[in-house]
Amino acid sequence: MILPVFGYGSVELREISKDISPDYPNLKELITNMRETLTNAEGVGLAASQVGLPVKLFIIDAEPLANDHKELTGFKKVFLNPYIISEEGEPWFYNEGCLSLPGIREEISRKPKISIKYFDENFVLHKEVFDGIKARIFQHEYDHLSGILIPDHLSQIRRALIKNKLNNIIIGKVKVSYNMKFAKKK
């Protein structure tokens, strides 16, 4: 089932996510629904908070970027209770977008290498190191678990420059090809 993606301005996006347990109700169904929602929206990552659930869960399917980034071929994972152990390297900028902020793309600075731990959908613990674009996608989704969004990474001046776009998202005055839930109706 395709779920609505909550848009910028929705309080659900600012909630701090809680750990998710193996007995979370209908977890497998939720993961399936999130995968369908992500595919339908043509995104590469989706956090549970973006579908209104404040739990530490996100999925990544970076296959759509594999033509430009060969290392993303087959990069499809479920992350439960993820944790960044360390971040390394000189921060680098990359143009990021977000399903909750349609029409907004911004240059965001992040460190290029991360060590992480997480559980997969079967609650098997994994420890991995991601670098480059894999690290960036993970960090973007990980931000959602703390209620952090793209505008939070921007300077005050840059936020002011996109204020009208942000306000349009809040009221639903944007065109999207996927199901969205907006903070306010126009």
Tally the beta strands.
Answer: 9
Mind telling me the CATH superfamily name? Peptide deformylase
Number of domains: 1
- What is the residue-mean pLDDT, rounded to a whole number? 97
Helicity level: 10-25%
Percentage of residues in strands: 25-35%
Distance between the termini: 26 Å
**Architecture, according to CATH?**
Alpha-Beta Complex
| Helical stretch tally | 4
How is the largest sheet built, in terms of strand order? 2-3-4-7-8
In the CATH hierarchy, what is the class? Alpha Beta
Low-confidence stretches: none
Secondary-structure element pattern, one letter each: EHEEEEEEEHHHE
Question: Structural class of the secondary structure composition?
Answer: alpha+beta
Query: Any idea what the shape is?
Result: globular
Biggest sheet architecture: 5 strands, antiparallel
CATH topology title: Peptide Deformylase
Rg calculated over all Cα atoms: 16 Å
Structure description:
With 186 residues, the chain is an alpha+beta fold. It has one domain: Peptide deformylase (Peptide Deformylase, Alpha-Beta Complex), CATH 3.90.45. Helix content is 24%, strand content 27%. It has helices at 27-41, 132-145, 156-161, 163-171, and strands spanning 5-6, 45-47, 57-61, 76-88, 92-97, 105-110, 113-119, 125-131, 180-181. The strands form three sheets. The chain has a five-stranded antiparallel β-sheet, with helices on both faces. A two-stranded parallel sheet has the order 1-9. A two-stranded antiparallel ribbon has the order 5-6. Strand 5 and strand 6 (105-110) form a beta hairpin.
